[in-house]
Amino acid sequence: MSDTAYRTIERSELELAEPGDYFALLKPRVVSLVVFSGLAGLLVAPGSIHPLIAAVAVLCIAVGAGASGAINMWYDRDIDAVMERTRRRPIPTGLIAPGDALGFGIVLAAGSVAIMGLAVNVMAAALLAAAILFYVFVYTMWLKRRTPQNIVIGGAAGAFPPMIGWAAVTGSVSAESALLFALIFFWTPPHFWALALYRSGDYEKAGIPMLPVVAGKVETKKQMILYTALLIPLGIAPVWLGFVGWAYGIAAGILGIIFFAAAIAVWFDQTDRSAKRMFGYSIFYLFALFAVMVADASLGFGG
User: Engineering a disulfide at 64: which of 112, 155, 184, 275 sits with its beta carbon 3.0 to 4.6 angstroms away?
Assistant: First the structure.
């Protein structure tokens, strides 16, 4: 859809925009997982933090992630308009003008980083800024439309939140927080490729070079198996660093094996059913992994 068409829609329908439409720009379902992983990083970090400062840190993570989503929707408004999964978003439907969405995202991004720096600490603010900039400039503007490695490299943006939460408490980056980053970084490709397998027609129509579109479903399924196999030892690795105990390690191993089994099921399934199930399980996997990690660390089973 051209910018001229957008301007026509804006003039006739802009008055229909409601607070809920701006909230939708923040990608709340995605943000919920981002916030939870950031909170988990904060809760498992060594040391203490005032509850009010902790709440501010988590809020800044949420607002910063939402701001990234709003800017992403502004930039991707042309492809969102042709994809079935995204065509009902506020900009393609004409409920919010592209310029308003961009301004909304920029203000929230700048505000979240500034408040994080002033109320929490500079390291947490720097990591939050890096996450926003990486998602907007590296993933959205550079990688997404150019390479099937878009999700592999771009996944780093979504892996920052637990590091930010950790830094909010400690003021630093450590091997432990880097491992939390790695967990999400290596989880992201099989998570998104499961979605891409049953939405490959959508991505092809929009000209997005997702792996199933460029390399085919067989290669995508092979890569999913490799990544989920890697996640099994990686998920247990926090035990070896000593900040959680074996109660977490056992749970992480079981969750990882189920994830791997889901990838194997996708390999043998010629329909989309297993890919849809794997996508749903991948979200549960990450929530459960961090929930068990927090519970284990809170009970003091770590080293």
Answer: 112
Report residue 221 CA to chain centroid gap.
Answer: 21
Q: Say if CB 56 and CB 120 are below 8 A apart.
A: yes
- 8 Å CB contact between 106 and 40: no
Distance between CA 91 and CA 149 in Å, rounded?
A: 27
CA distances from 159 to 153, 215, 263 (A): 11, 25, 21
pTM over 0.70: yes
What is the three-class DSSP state of 289? helix
pLDDT at 4 over 70: no
Of the candidates 155, 140, 8, which has an alpha carbon nearest to the alpha carbon of residue 76? 140
Extract the tokens encoding 152: 């592999």
Which of 60, 169, 170 lies closest to 116, judged by CA? 60
Q: Is the dihedral of CA 255, 229, 128, 193 positive or negative?
A: negative
Tens-place pLDDT, residues 139-162: 999 999 999 999 999 889 999 999
